[in-house]
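[job 4417] fold queue: 2 targets
>>> target A
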Amino acid sequence: MNSEKIKTLEQVQDALSIVEDARAAAPGNRQLEEASARLRKLERTIIRAKQEELVAALTADSAGLKALSEEIKASAKDLEAAANAIGKATAVVEALIKIVSTAASAGLL
C-alpha cells in the first residue's frame, strides 16, 4: 500500500478521535454525530482498499512461490535421474574393478 493511503487513514482516524471527543463534550449534537458516521465510513473504505491490496499482493507472491516450488520439484526429479544414472555407472565400474582385480590376482592379466 502506498504511503498516501496510510497518511490519509491516519488523518481520518485523528479527525475521528477529535470528533468523538467533541461528541462526548456535547452529547446529542447532530452535526458531530453525522461527522463521526461519515468518518467511520471513510475509515472502513480505506481499510477495505488496504485489505484488497494486501490480498492481491499476497496472491501474486503466493503464485510466484508455487511456481518456484514446482521448478524445484522438477529440478529435483532431474537431479534424481542423474544421480540414479551415476549410481548405476558406479556399480558397473565397481564390478569391473572386481573382475580386473580378480583376474590380475589369478595372473590372467
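>>> target B
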Amino acid sequence: MATRDIARFVMQTAENQKYEAISFQDAVSCSRSFLDELYVISQKNHIRLVDMPDTILPLLDIIERSHKSQKVFAPRIKVRVSDTTFA
C-alpha cells in the first residue's frame, strides 16, 4: 500500500513541477505495485517513464502487457523444489 502512495506522491511532484518525464536513471530495482501505479498514473497524465534500466525493464514490459490485455501476467522464474530439511 505504501508503495502505491509513494508512486502517487512522485507523480504529484512531477505534475507540480510540470515535468514531461520521470527518469529511472539511477534506480536499481522497484516493487511491482510502485511501478504499476506509476505506469497507470503516468498514462493518464501523459508523463513518460524514461531511462529504464535493464533490471526494471522486464517488469515494466509485464505491467504494460497486463494493462493492454486486461490480464494479470507474472514474471517467469526458475524454481527448484528441495526435500532437504534445515534445522
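[job 4417] complete. Note on B: Residues 2-69 form one domain.
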